[in-house]
Amino acid sequence: MELRELRTFVAVAEQGSVSGAARRLRVSQPAVSQTVAALEEQVGVELLVRSSTGVRLTEAGTVLAAEARAVLARYEQALTAVGRFAVGGDSRLRVGVPLELPPELLPDAFAALARAHPRTRVEVRHLTSAAQLDALRDGGLEIGLLRSRPLGADLDAILAVQEPLGVLLSAADQRSDSAEVRLEKLAGLDWLAFARADSPDWFDEVAAVLRSHGLSPGPAVAPGQFLIAEVKFAAVSSGQAFAFAPRDWSTPLPAGVVWRPLAGSPLVRRTWAVWPADSRRRDLATLIAQLDAGP
User: Fold this and answer.
1) DSSP-assigned beta bridge partners for residue 242
2) Among the listed residues 95, 24, 92, 82, the one whose alpha carbon sits nearest the alpha carbon of residue 275
């Protein structure tokens, strides 16, 4: 049995449902069900009684839950016992970030990290979600901020921030006169897209929302062509394009460009903090706890 399987089973036992355990662990319900089924196959007995209202432990499940809690507690004790040896001397913590983030997200988290671990040096690297994912798996980053939650047991993740997106429009565009803009009303304008290869899941989500409102995502963009603020402003000012942006964007808008919320908030940009599941660094744990608390 793996620790991951024991954690999953304990979560199911404590939540009383597969869905509750999935929410607590931030994984899919099928993943939780598969883990429990694999455990039942390993031990050769049923561990849960399933019903429409949830699950309850069988006698064997009750025994396993108690033993699993003891194993997990002993594991945490072992980590604590050797934790003081985990980071010796000055340590480097490499953090991957995307092009845009809420301005308040990282400063407070980094300040708390500096107070708790003054010998940790933070190195921030601007990378696309795809590049961060490769770097996390190759050992080039300790933690990354990605636009989607990666699959696989080798990485852990928490949802760091959610940003409802609005739209940047030319101030001369009549659509900007409205208090909020319906997405389908942007027909005739080009979406200032990013390269799908840079963040495939997030691109596909945006493209699907556009298509559902009768809009085309437009031609493919070559990887590595970053949409910095100045590029967005220039294109939007022409009156031929629109761009998505959060309300509290850190870049001041120039004259001629306005931000409007989208009716119904059809697009929410999620940023996940992702790190190697086998990491035992205490400074990384501090940073994760700060990001989990939110800005």
Assistant:
1) 191
2) 95
**What's the DSSP call for residue 26?**
T
- Helix/strand/coil for 140: coil
- Residue holding tokens 């761009």? 243
Which residues sit opposite 259 in a β-bridge?
Answer: 168
- Name the token pair of 94: 């490499």
184 DSSP 8-state letter: G
User: Alpha-carbon distance 134 to 203, whole Å?
Assistant: 18
pLDDT digits (tens, 9 = 90+) for 111-120: 999 999 999 9
Residue 188 has pLDDT above 60, yes or no: yes
Report yes or no: 24 and 15 within 8 Å, Cβ to Cβ. Answer: yes
Rounded distance between C-alpha atoms, residue 245 and residue 218, angstroms: 18
pLDDT digits over 261-278, tens only? 999 999 999 999 999 999
Contact 247, 261 (CB under 8 A): yes
Tracing tokens 């959610």 back to the chain, one arrives at 162
Residue whose tokens read 């016992």: 81
Give CA–CA dist 122/112, Å, rounded: 12
What are the structure tokens assigned to 166, written together? 């609005």
